[in-house]
Amino acid sequence: MADVRQPAETMIRLDRVSKTYPGSSAPAVDDLSLDVGAGEIVVLVGPSGCGKTTTMRMINRLIEPTSGRIILDGDDVTNVDADELRKRIGYVIQQVGLLPHLTVAANVALVPRVLGWDKARIRARVDELLTLVGLEPGTYRSRYPKQLSGGQQQRVGVARALAADPPVMLMDEPFGAIDPIVRDRLQDEFLALQAQIQKTVVFVTHDIQEAVKLGDRIAIFGAGGRIAQHDTPARILAEPADDFVASFIGSGAAVRLLGLRQVGSLPLHRLDPAAADGAHPVVRREQSLYEALDAMLRARADVAVVVDEHGEALGGLAWRTVLERAGSDAGGG
């Protein structure tokens, strides 16, 4: 067999992968090639029936590809034992899938137990992961899924997917069934968690706002299981590849771009002494332009005071400067 090992920075490679379901004349996924870098979150997004979930499930071979190769960390896994493959991949779904008759600890311990870990190692790993996802072990390890809120159940699902420390995580609309406020908080917590663990994540959603918030790269699927555009969120919002992508991301692209730009990316002006009197909103330079504009609108101020991580004033940011940036982004600049 030829050596198919990929460069270290490529964790997942789909090489001309197709899937045609029995009885269907048209492929659900058609000749798809996609690279996912190590430690990267790639979000698959698109309308219903476009092939994004089929693509993700072919990676851990819950769905078998009709043709093509799937390469994981340099190894062609298309023909290996599917159960062994899945031990290398964490999997989180919208319905969570916790076993109702098992405690939280037992649910998290499922894969380590299959792998033959000893009891002490399993217990330590369960407590470590529950702490990592914000569930105090002493409080939650003995509870059952029905005793948890939807958000807590989803945290347990993430902990279970991480239990054997897999290099890859697949997440199929994991926050889709949760109310918007809790969903937004879970997204923030997931990004904070990812900053610590640096897993390679393939994340499926139908929500372009979620894709923009979470993705290092976004693959927008069009009809026929083909990728219409695969790029960074900023590039997709500023430079949609075609009319389909422009229509899918919608008219609010410029506003969403403000959520990606940091305050420190824009020039600041010298502060008027009156702006330091406490009446003007204060924003940190690492905050988004969207947050800065929101703070100014709430305070009915035309300038925000920008501070560094020590609270020292760096200068002023005018709302007109932010709006000019939004206009530039909307024009593709």
Plain-language structure description:
By secondary structure, the chain is an alpha/beta fold. It has 14 helices and 13 strands. It has helices at 52-59, 82-86, 104-108, 110-114, 119-132, 137-140, 150-162, 180-197, 208-214, 233-238, 243-249, 253-258, 289-299, 319-330; strands spanning 10-19, 29-37, 41-45, 67-72, 75-76, 89-93, 168-172, 200-205, 217-221, 227-231, 282-284, 303-307, 313-318. It has a six-stranded mixed sheet with strand order 6-7-8-3-9-10, sandwiched between helices. The chain has a four-stranded antiparallel sheet with strand order 2-1-4-5, with helices on one face. Strands 11-12-13 form a three-stranded mixed sheet. The longest helix has 18 residues, at 180-197. It is globular, with a radius of gyration of 23 Å. Mean pLDDT is 85; it is low at 1-8.
